[in-house]
Amino acid sequence: MKFELDGEYDKLSKREKRIKLYFDQKIVLDDFLNSGAITKAQYDKSFNDLTAKMNIFGDDKFKEVVAGIAFSDGRFLIAKRPEGKKRAGLYEFVGGKVENGESKENALKREFFEELGVDISVEKEFASVLHFYDDLAVHLTVFIVKLNGVPEPKEGQSLKYISAAEIGEYKFCDADEEILNKIKKLPVV
Hints:
By secondary structure, the chain is an alpha+beta fold. It has helices at residues 14-35, 40-56, 104-116, 177-184; strands spanning 62-72, 75-80, 91-92, 94-97, 119-132, 137-148, 158-162. It is built from four helices and seven strands; from the N terminus they run ααββββαβββα.
């Protein structure tokens, strides 16, 4: 998904422009990978180099994050952020930060195991979003995953399976809104 500004580019801060440049370069990498122009190994190296460059610029307020959507019987898994964390009490998809040198898929597997004690199979990328919070910017890549076991919360969060029709009953992190709208449009979840 492209990060569109509709003529708003000049209003962005220097930091936001730098993040947009990163996002645009990542879209090119994604296109190269999807067209077969580069291998997965070349993609991972280029992606890690690009992310490291963001850190060289001193932008510790930019995070590359991943999340997984696990479907079961027409419903999908959500987690409520525990007290003591930023955006506590809001719902989100299970996931977290991609560590330096880590692929997105491996980061997602690690996060599911750390947060829920369960292994997953990463099936396919579902969506990608760039979102600016007041305190940081996140590039969120969401994958469809399959749970290989029963999830058990390990970090104080609560878990629920909800249907697309129930989305409006829960308050989610702002970065998830575009993802939720895409889920609502699925023919059968």
